[in-house]
Amino acid sequence: MITVLVANLLCQYDELNIESEVLSIMETIIYAHPWSGSFNNAELKAITTKLAAAKTAYQIIDLYHDGFRPAYTAEELKNFSHGVALDPLVKQYQAQLRASSKLTFIFPIWWSNAPAIIKGFIDKVMLPGFAYHEDTNWHGHLTWIQQVAIFTTSEVSQSQLENNYGNPIQNWLINTLLRDLGIPAQQVTWSHFGEINSSTPAQRQAYLEQLTTR
């Protein structure tokens, strides 16, 4: 069962059953910020307002709100090579990803990279058999994902991230991780709102307005 939001209709996770093939367009937003007053939360609201106005089906994976545990237990790790998920949230997230044609990530940059909860989401959800398999070569399985959009914020500019901090989003997330999942870089866009601590309300508002016309 999958939480589906279509226009202004919000259906709770246990109220709607839907098969992945029913909707040809489903945007899944992977959101990671614990504070409702954050700029990331404002981005989430701007993007979902746009999707609702366009009557585009979407669903939200809110990692902090869900209480997702990013660290493996010993028992979970023992089952990793078999592709077995023990965490009910992992099974739910895999079902949501199966129903998706587009993924949108929204998270802050902390200590020059994505928050640990994003890394834990990748570690625990992208299991062998579901996300990839290996024989003589590596095969990414998420080839049904047609587009990925990444929205990040931090106190440093995008050029600083790229030139002084190892370019983590491009090098780790886009060129390595998503590629290994079967999603080529040309299907991925990245938008960064940097120097957020010194930005003005007008600059933040202008950026949010751009999101509603993306």
Automatic annotation (TrEMBL):
Signal peptide, first to last residue: none
UniProt keyword list: Oxidoreductase
InterPro entries: Flavodoxin_fold (IPR003680), Flavoprotein-like_sf (IPR029039), NAD(P)H_dehydrogenase_qn (IPR051545)
GO cellular component, one term: cytosol
Molecular function via GO: NAD(P)H dehydrogenase (quinone) activity
UniProt KW ATP-binding keyword: no
Pfam families: Flavodoxin_2
Domain named Flavodoxin-like fold: residues: 29-211
Family: Belongs to the NAD(P)H dehydrogenase (quinone) family.
Stated name of the protein: Flavodoxin
Organism: Loigolactobacillus bifermentans DSM 20003
